[in-house]
Amino acid sequence: MNTGILVILYGKGLHDSKTISKLLDTTIDECCYLHIVNNGPEEILISNNNVLESLKIKFKNVLVEQFLENRPLSFLYNSFLNNDYDRFIFFDDDSDIPLYFFRNSLNVFKSEVGIDIQLPIIKSIVSNKYFYPVVNDVVIKKSGFTESNDEVFSIGSGIIIYSSLINKFREFNLTLFDNRFALYGVDFSLFRRIHFLKKKGINVGVYITQELKHSLSRESGSISKWREKERLIDYTLTSLFYSKSYILKISRISKIFFMLLLRKDTELLKEILKVIVNKKHPMC
Fold it and tell me: What letters, b where the CB count within 10 A reaches 16 and e where it falls short, cover 222-261?
């Protein structure tokens, strides 16, 4: 089985990334191709890079791309999925990958019939609390298939997508990740689209697998102005495109306007108006 692995770096070199370090330590029995994307803001020097040379020894092929302008994650994810692999694995730059992560996930796939996507059980590096996946508003801590009518959400790091899922999306001429989102909301857009497929009668095999420790932004303390803006853009786009009713959509958008008007935050209000008019993140 040919496996593609995508690692998105931001603000880090190869030697600074916990994910890259763990990839060098993990046991890999299959044919793996590693894609590393430096999404800025500084260029990574790859000539005479000892970490890169070690990766090239371990993996079938290593491709390094650099987009210093910070490209939307949705674009990067969907572009990666255009490759001709049997399965696609996604990581950010700060995941604590278990030693046998790849072997275990492949063994599960071989032993269980009908898996389209595997989700790790996300545990915080900071607090040791479990956060994802969330199934019907409940955090799940055990492995196994979800039910066909379950509403599932998780974050992108550690997700394994099989070519069978891509083919199911192609039947509806849909990308897996919504290109109208750039940062926040990209991961969740995949699950909202999976839910759309389910409502169309398409069976999607979602399997919850092994534990993966991860650094979560929600535990990073105070929320910066930038992070607040990005979360609000995500909320706005989600309200526009994924509200369950027109009334709910209007209610959510109105709530945003009232909040910003009360705060007299004219700059952020202008940003949100731009998002509503253009129907996409400003980066997209």
Answer: eeeeeeebbebbbbbbbbbbbeeeeeebeeebeebeeebe
The predicted-structure confidence for 128-156, as pLDDT tens digits, reads as follows 999 999 999 999 999 999 999 999 999 99
Q: How far apart are CA 244 and CA 260, in angstroms?
A: 24
- How confident is the model over 45-81, as pLDDT tens digits? 888 899 999 999 999 999 999 999 999 999 999 999 9
Q: Name residue, tokens 């199911």.
A: 168
- Helices 50-58 and 18-25 meet at what angle, rounded to 10? 40
> Using CA atoms in the order 108, 111, 114, 115, what is the torsion angle rounded to 10 degrees?
10
Q: Take residue 59 and report the two structure tokens written for it.
A: 């993996």
Beta-bridge mates of residue 89? 5, 160
Distances (CA, A) of 175 to 78, 179, 191: 7, 8, 12
d(CA 184, CA 127): 22
Angle between helices 246-263 and 266-278 (to 10 degrees): 160
